[in-house]
Model the fold of this input.
Amino acid sequence: MLVIRGVNVYPAEVERVLLADGRTSPHYLIVVDARTAVKDLIVAVEARTGVAAGSRTAAAAGPGHAELLASGLERAVGEQLGEQLGVRARVRVLPEGTLPRTEAGKAVRVVTWASGAAPLPGLGERRH
Done:
């Protein structure tokens, strides 16, 4: 269990929301941003092939189209997480295969970001 801004958040609840959206893969990373006194929640999730970031279909549609698809998916998943968990989460959609896995191929699910560089490139950036 994680405590984010006074709200108990269970990783299984995050997973349930992500799996309910057919555009995301079952690979995700929950980042507890503990760089300040108030912890924030960042959820990095991989898009299914052809859905968003890095897809051939999006690239063929023109420059910036993949980013628009990714930002729309980020917004939609963020809203779902907010409704289901009762706490806001920043969502980052990444291409399949981006998230770290152990040598056995298992995904890393939760990390705490207390200081230094972001656990994944681009997580420190705020998108609007």
